[in-house]
Amino acid sequence: MSSVAAAHWQEARNLRLAARLQAADPQPPSLGLAREGVLRRAVGLTLEASGCSAPLGSRCRVETAGGRWVDAEVVGFAGDRTYLMPTADLEGLLPNARVVPLRRRGEVAVGEGLLGRVIDSDGVPLDGRGPVRAEQWVGLAGTAINPLMREPITQSLDVGVRAINALLPIGRGQRIGLFAGSGVGKSTLLGMMTRFTAADVIVVGLIGERGREVRDFVESTLGEEGLRRAVVVATPADRPPLARLHGALRATAIAEYYRDQGLHVLLLMDSLTRFAHAQREVGLSVGEPPTTRGYPPSVFAKLPQLVERAGNGADGRGSITAFYTVLTEGDDQQEPIADAARAILDGHIVLTRRIADAGQYPAIDVEVSVSRVMQEITDPAWRERIRRLKRLMAAHSAQRDLIAIGAYQRGSDPAVDEAVARWPAIQAFLGQDVAEASDVAASRAALAALLDDGPAAVAPNRPQEA
Ligand SMILES: Nc1ncnc2c1ncn2[C@@H]1O[C@H](COP(=O)(O)OP(=O)(O)O)[C@@H](O)[C@H]1O
Ligand SMILES: [Mg+2]
Questions:
Q1: 319 CA → ligand 1 middle, Å
Q2: Which pLDDT band, with edges at 50, 70 and 90, does 21 fall under?
Q3: Which residues are the signal sequence here (predicted)?
Q4: Same structural domain, 195 and 275
Q5: Ligand 2 centroid – CA 17 distance (Å)
Q6: Which among 400, 345, 360, 421 has a CA at the least distance from the CA of 168?
Q7: Is the CB of 180 under 6 A from ligand 1?
Q8: pLDDT tens digits, residue range 254-291?
């Protein structure tokens, strides 16, 4: 057989195969005809195939020794070369192995059966409670909502945490960053919100944590009560970078599915930083330049793509309110990922080690935390109280060192005097036990009580304007 005839024959076989596969499996949608290739190079996490024709973002299977197959995703191409990255551990890879494009993009099985379940980035259950029944398939990458069609943020959302409800009110459909170093209480705060937030469904994406932390979060922090209305997608740190990326995408896709059912969803992503790190590994592996302090440009493209998927649905549909944790080691708020996250999110809550070390939990630094939708969901009296408390706290922290050693002279500054007089009450107001919930009405009432009664006579009502 001449080589031309062989090519024709192969083409015809591919067409027949494609037709058969399409008939057998109408869902998920096909990607058109794809051509099988051969593995030429495998260095680090990057695979290079030649002769392979598969669209960017699609899945391939690579044959390994012993006839097993591993999944890989097309992450780039150059000339005849297709670059792939594995979504599972690479073992037994052989030179010239077959690379067979799959006729589907990464698709996400969704349905009621997901509630209460813990799955991995491929949708495989991790909780040993049998398979999850899919009712529908949705895309891993989601479909963007026209920003002009999105419902604006107009309703406040009860998250059950007094300091947030009263001072950093969260709107339904808002995207908020939770900025903190490790061990300052991010996971614990997310756990509180999982249990107390007024949401129909809670989707938790645990991305790049240690395996032990995943177990801790599910069993202790979330508990049975929290898990009942939650879906957890866990991709620990030891999984390949693409799997970690897919974990975040899958969690978002699941949240989108519930939102499109008209439900109000709380999406908790721990952490956005690890998602960015995974994308950095992918980008660098395929030869992107590390342009911003070691991060390739694709990282800063992927972050808004992920975050923009949360938010309110098109008119009348449900909502996704999302919290993304951002690691700020050594309290470096200028770190590129923290910087990028601040720019694309509608607010940030900062947890500070200084406050946690003092045994004050949740360790929210009210002075530097911001909710950008406050104007839309609060009334003027409420905003005035928030400003007043922030001024008191700023006055106190300006003299913190003197106050701590008892060297502050009463009477030097009326604002500081009032702050010192009210300090125990402020601390009690900000502190909250993990098992205790405080709804929006109670939190607002507590703020009003904190400022309107008590030792108000110590100083004028508006210290900074006096
Ligand atoms: N609300 C809280 N009340 C009491 N202790 C807390 C609270 N939040 C955090 N902690 C303490 O801080 C530790 C680390 O919290 P964690 O939520 O795991 O931090 P992170 O997720 O930021 O690494 C916990 O093991 C606990 O001892
Ligand atoms: Mg944590």
A1: 29
A2: low
A3: none
A4: yes
A5: 47
A6: 345
A7: yes
A8: 999 999 999 999 999 999 999 999 999 999 988 888 88
Whether the CB of 188 sits within 6 Å of ligand 1:
yes
Compute the distance from residue 71 Cα to the ligand 2 centre, in Å: 29
**Residues 56, 195: one domain?**
no
Q: Determine, yes or no, domain membership for 463.
A: no
Residue 44 shares a structural domain with residue 76: yes
Residue 446 covered by a domain: yes
> Which residue, by CA, sits nearest to atom 3 of ligand 1?
361
Ligand 2: distance of its center to the CA of 182 in Å? Answer: 7
Q: Output the CA torsion 435→437→443→446 (10° steps).
A: -50
Residue 385 has pLDDT above 50, yes or no: yes
Q: Residues 337, 419: one domain?
A: no
Residue owning the nearest CA to atom 8 of ligand 1: 185
Tell the residue nearest (CA) to atom 14 of ligand 1: 183
What atom in ligand 1 is closest to the CA of residue 184?
A: 22
Task: Judge if the beta carbon of residue 185 lies within 6 A of ligand 1.
Answer: yes
Specify if 10 maps to a domain.
no
Domain boundary among 74, 101, 128: 101
**E strand or H helix at 267:** strand 264-270
Measured CA to CA, the distance from residue 161 to residue 169 in angstroms comes to: 10
Indicate if ligand 1 lies below 6 Å from the C-beta of 184. Answer: yes
- For ligand 2, a single-atom ion, the residues with CB < 5 A are 186-187
Ramachandran category for residue 80: left, alpha or beta (phi over 0 → left; psi -120 to 50 → alpha): alpha
Q: Which domain holds residue 417?
A: 382-452
Same domain, 354 and 399: no
Give dist(CA 174, CA 343) in Å, integer.
14
Distance CA 431, CA 268 (A): 22
Q: Is the CB of 103 inside a 6 Å radius of any atom of ligand 1?
A: no
Residue nearest to atom 17 of ligand 1 (CA): 185
- Give the pLDDT confidence score for residue 142 in this predicted structure: 86
Residue 125 shares a structural domain with residue 273: yes
The pTM (predicted TM-score) of the whole model is 0.86
In eight-state DSSP terms, residue 133 is: P
CATH number at residue 226: 3.40.50.12240
Given 101, 132, 148, the domain boundary residue is 101
CA of 180, nearest ligand number: 1
Q: Domain check: are 166 and 235 in the same one?
A: yes
How remote is the C-alpha of 244 from its chain's centroid? 11
Please work out whether the CB of residue 187 comes within 6 Å of at least one atom of ligand 1.
yes
When divided into structural domains, the chain yields a total of 3
The answer to whether the CB of 85 falls within 8 A of the CB of 241 is: yes
Nearest listed ligand to the Cα of residue 189? 1
